[in-house]
Design brief:
six-stranded parallel β-sheet; 15 strands; globular; Rossmann fold; seven-stranded mixed β-sheet; single chain; alpha/beta; 2 domains; Dihydrodipicolinate Reductase, domain 2
Length: 330
């Protein structure tokens, strides 16, 4: 099978580094180039990954790419998706899928109209611990699922992540969607309602940095998502994804980032936990490569991203109303 031509639109999002590394190492991929509106960042990344820098994303799309990975700020997901779809490229878009229902609708419509696939960047779907838990649930080992407790903690990001206009929200938007997707995937049910309390309580950056999201699904399962940017600067690890799945026949605890090596760095006076072994980002990119090669529906679709986004949007409505809010499906 001939190589597929791939590119990355922007390195604004930190996950672009891992995706670019996966593309560079994939023998079935021709890594055509990188575009970024920050010329310094774009040229630096292009040099690092031994590819070409395009100052204008339109010039990159003229290369007749088979697929693109979009890692802009959240607000630009719609514009970049429209441009890529109209250029005939399959799309992997960083989470959250979009920041509002209108943009999400436009993104789904343009890919359908141009007959390309769009995939949401939910790498946790490809993490070995999560996959093993999903298989156990599907085998019925826990019986009927009653509830799921989820935690997605991390350090507070910087830059555009702290702009409500560019990011669509703070910690609730950033960290709710991963677990909202997993809970929906594990239960095979859609969301019915959300109650959320969130706010700016930790970092004084002018945007929500913590929250507790309580959800109920159509099949009666309820769950909680702690989506806080709760790790302080010298916390030993950035990510934390934890789930406790309670069923009628058992309880399963899932801790996704426990393959770590603790490094004591005397020169920098820091203690850091380095994740090793499980590379969910690589699994995500490999699935996208398969989709580009075959045109098949991805294992994580655009609609999966929309359904998780809808939970975050309902959480913000609930924060404002202090009431249980229905999840509005587009």
């Amino acid at each position: 099978m001939k190589k597929v031509k791939m590119g990355i639109i922007s390195f604004e999002h930190m996950h672009a580094m891992a995706y670019a590394q996966a593309l560079m190492e994939a023998p079935q991929v021709e890594f055509v180039g990188i575009t970024d509106d920050d010329a310094f960042r774009g040229t630096e990344m292009a040099a690092h990954f031994k590819t070409t820098y395009y100052p204008d994303y339109k010039d990159l799309l003229k290369e007749e790419l088979d697929g693109v990975i979009i890692c802009t700020c959240n607000k630009l997901h719609k514009d970049m998706t429209i441009a890529a779809a109209e250029a005939g490229a399959h799309i992997l878009v960083e989470k959250p899928f979009a920041t509002n229902e209108e943009d999400a609708k436009a993104m789904l419509e343009v890919v359908e109209r141009n007959k390309v696939q769009i995939m949401t960047a939910f790498p946790m779907r490809f993490h070995p611990a999560i996959l093993a838990a999903k298989e156990a649930v599907d085998r019925g080992e826990l019986g009927e699922i009653l509830s799921i407790t989820g935690i997605n903690h991390g350090k507070i990001p910087s830059g555009w992540f702290l702009s409500r206009e560019l990011a669509g929200g703070g910690a609730v938007m950033d960290h709710t969607v991963h677990l909202a997707d997993l809970m929906r995937w594990f239960t095979n049910s859609e969301y019915a309602s959300v109650y959320c309390e969130s706010g700016e309580l930790l970092h004084n950056k002018g945007i929500d940095d913590c929250g507790i999201v309580t959800v109920e699904l159509d099949n009666g399962v309820f769950g909680t998502i702690d989506c806080s940017w709760g790790h302080h600067d010298n916390y030993t690890i950035w990510p934390e994804v934890y789930m406790e799945i309670v069923g009628t026949q058992g309880v399963l605890e899932v801790e996704a980032f426990k393959q770590i090596a603790r490094v004591f760095d005397v020169s920098a006076n820091v203690v850091e936990d380095m994740v090793w072994g499980s590379n969910a980002d690589d699994g995500l990119v490999q699935e996208f490569i398969r989709v580009v090669q075959t045109g098949d529906i991805p294992k994580v679709t655009g609609m999966d991203g929309v359904r998780a986004m809808e939970v975050a949007l309902a959480a913000y409505r609930s924060t404002n109303s202090h009431k249980v809010e229905p999840v509005i499906h587009i």
